[in-house]
């Protein structure tokens, strides 16, 4: 069996990840990736091509580091995933002429924190939605950074960080409760439509 980057490249190839500006991964902290069940925490890993970074959003401060200051299980899981998919996203290690730099991993420290032990998945959904909205609002800035201008990448990353810091104002427990209600309503509507069509 091949290495994790080779397997990731093979699995992701039909999606053409090396052509995407933004790629989003939900990450579970289960260290036993061969087992379907396991893990206790979800985080979000976002590949942002203009800055060539993976941005890791973790809503649980208790999962950031262990008692000795080492990276947590969720950070380690994000690192493993980033290491596995990074070459497929950048084209690095793809054979002759592939000289793209592998992305760096940025821990987003200004990520709002959940106030309970069960809302991590809701925070993943809320941040994923926000990240997609940021991307759609800023294509001209994203293109500037993607064209290789060092100034553009700095500008793009700075704009992204402004958006990340602004999350503290709106990504609150009340927002998460509203999102949970919104998702439940979507599920109910879809279930009702499916039962009518059956």
Write the element-wise H/E pattern from the N-terminal end onward: HEEEHEHHHH
CATH architecture type: 3-Layer(aba) Sandwich
Sheet bearing the most strands, described? Answer: 4 strands, mixed
Head-to-tail CA distance between termini: 44 Å
Residue windows where pLDDT falls under 50 for at least 5 positions: 141-150
Q: pLDDT average, as an integer?
A: 83
InterPro entries: Nep1/2-like, Papain-like_cys_pep_sf, Peptidase_C48_C
GO biological process, one term: proteolysis
Keywords: Hydrolase, Protease, Thiol protease
Protein name: Ubiquitin-like protease family profile domain-containing protein
Task: Write up this protein.
- The chain has a four-stranded mixed beta sheet with strand order 1-2-3-4, sandwiched between helices.
- Helix 4 runs antiparallel to helix 5.
- The model is unreliable at 141-150 (pLDDT under 50).
- The protein starts with a helix and ends with a helix.
- It has 198 residues and is α+β, with helices and mostly antiparallel strands.
- The protein is globular and about 50 Å long.
- Helix content is 50%, strand content 12%.
- It has a single domain, classed as Adenoviral Proteinase, Chain.
- Residues 56-77 have a biased composition (Polar residues).
């Amino acid at each position: 069996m091949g290495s994790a980057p080779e397997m990731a490249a093979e699995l992701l190839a039909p999606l053409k990840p090396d052509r995407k500006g933004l790629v989003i991964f939900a990450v579970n902290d289960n260290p036993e990736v061969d087992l379907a069940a396991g893990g206790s925490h979800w985080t979000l890993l976002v590949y942002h091509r203009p800055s060539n970074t993976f941005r890791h959003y973790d809503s649980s401060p208790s999962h950031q580091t262990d008692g000795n200051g080492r990276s947590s299980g969720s950070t380690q899981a994000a690192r493993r995933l980033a290491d596995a998919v990074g070459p497929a996203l950048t084209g690095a290690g793809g054979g002759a002429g592939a000289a793209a730099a592998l992305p760096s991993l940025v821990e987003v420290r200004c990520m709002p924190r959940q106030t309970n032990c069960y809302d991590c998945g809701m925070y993943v959904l809320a941040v994923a939605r926000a990240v997609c909205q940021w991307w759609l609002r800023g294509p001209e800035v994203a293109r500037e950074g993607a064209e290789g201008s060092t100034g553009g990448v700095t500008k793009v990353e700075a704009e992204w960080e402004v958006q990340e810091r602004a999350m503290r104002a709106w990504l609150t427990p009340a927002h998460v409760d509203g999102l949970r209600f919104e998702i439940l309503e979507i599920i109910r509507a879809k279930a009702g439509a499916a039962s009518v069509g059956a």
